[in-house]
Structures are given as structure tokens and as C-alpha cells.
Amino acid sequence: MCVGDRSYLLCFRRLLQQYVVDMYIKLETMRLDYLRRHQDDLRTECYQGLLDSVVSGVREGAVSGGGGAFFVDGPGGTGKSFLYRVLLAHIRSLGKIAIVVATSGITASAFPGGRTAHSRFKIPITVVKGVRCQMSVQSSEAHLMKCETIIIWDEAPMADKCIIEAVDKLMQELCGNRMLFGGKLIVFGGDFR
């Protein structure tokens, strides 16, 4: 019971505080509900921007010979694999070669033409600093690497830093330049947290 001027002010402060908390909860609930109901639209907009950037990177890379690196970050279930499949289909529909690799075999088997990074780039199983890929420059795989337009690497955060550096050196050696990944476009994906 509020009695006296001081008590009324105290009661009003508590009521105001409760009102602010209730409104915050209501707004946050509405925001989360909107995100849940429109998740596909929001994700599509986000990934459409990335798709446009990669496709323009492919176009510009074909003209200028410069590559680039993209990082797709997100936990499981956010549509990264769907994005990779769309990228693969689009790049291949243009008549260009797109290579998809993954750090684990189970993940690699989920993509058309997917292989593990160790298999595709001939990376030794035991990885130490300064490791080199065992691919011959005259092999048919090396010719494929020279002709490819884009590399999509899923579950990249699972790979050791030495492995990614070895692939970078291999691509530079095959393409005959010192650009990042030999001037090829690369999309790294996974959960970077």
C-alpha cells in the first residue's frame, strides 16, 4: 500500500520499471517472431548479395586475372550448403569449372563432384609446418586446377593453417604467379566461431 508522497513516487518508479521491462520483452518477442517467420526471405537477401559478389568476382577475375577470397560464416542449418550448390550450378552453367572440396569426407560427399581437400590437392596426411602438396605440375589434376575458375571449400575452419598455406603455394606454383591462391577465386565456408 502506497501512503505519503514518498511511497507514491516509489510505487510509480516500480510500475514504470515493470512497464519498461514488459515493453522490452514484447518488442523482443515480436522481433524474434518476425525473424522466425521471415527467415527464408532474410536469408535469401543475405545470400543473394554474396552470390552477386561471387559471380561478379568470377566475371572480373576472367577479365583481370585477379582472384579473391570470400568467407561464408554460419552455424549448421543456415543454408551454407544450399548457397554452395547454387554457386556450383551457376558457375558450371556458364561453362566454367568449379571445384568443391571439404575438410571431412562426409561433408564432401554432400556436393556434386565434391572431394576432400586432402584428395583433391594431394595433401599428405601428416601435416607439419611447411608441408607441400604432392601434386605434379604435369598431372591431369594440375591441368584441372589451372583451368578452374572457383574453389569452394566447406568446413574450412576444421583445416589446419598449414594445409591452407600449402594449397595457396600449390595454386601459385601451378598458375605461375604470386597472387593469393594463384589468382583463383576461393570461397571458404563453415562455422568460424
Written description of the protein model:
Keywords: ATP-binding, DNA damage, DNA recombination, DNA repair, Helicase, Hydrolase, Nucleotide-binding. It catalyses: ATP + H2O = ADP + phosphate + H(+). InterPro entries: DNA_helicase_pif1-like_DEAD, P-loop_NTPase. Its EC number is 5.6.2.3. Belongs to the helicase family. The protein has 193 residues and is α/β, with parallel strands linked by helices. It has 2 domains: 37 residues; 151 residues, Rossmann fold (3-Layer(aba) Sandwich), CATH 3.40.50. The chain contains 7 helices and 5 strands; from the N terminus they run ααβαβαβααβαβ. The chain has a 5-stranded parallel β-sheet. Strand 2, helix 4 and strand 3 form a beta-alpha-beta unit. The longest helix is centred in the N-terminal third of the chain and has 34 residues. It is elongated, with a radius of gyration of 25 Å. It starts with a helix and ends with a strand. The mean pLDDT is 82.
